[in-house]
Design a protein that fits this description.
Layout: E1 16-23, E2 26-35, E3 44-51, E4 62-63, E5 68-70, H1 73-81, H2 85-95
Antiparallel strand pairs: 1-2, 2-3, 3-4, 3-5
Amino acid sequence: MNSTSPRTAENPAPAVHIATIAHEGLLWDVYLDFESDPLRPVNFRARMRFEPPPGTEGAASTQTTVIIIEDSYDDAVAKAHRFDDRQLKGLLRSTLPEIE
């Protein structure tokens, strides 16, 4: 998909693998998930999704709210790639449930 492809709520931009990070002994894959916004169809809005290794007991997929809003698909992906491991781990921790 290029930055000029039409998108709809049923056809958002594809998810992009951003990184693999280690957190509490697990390797988490980080994806950039796009969502369509019918009120702003020219913007590319995306959230970070964190996936634990398959079959990991007690760990589930989690995600941020929309944190990237750019005018093009390429700009949104480039912004996501600028997050370093420390920032991605902080985002992951912010999405995990608190353990008492």
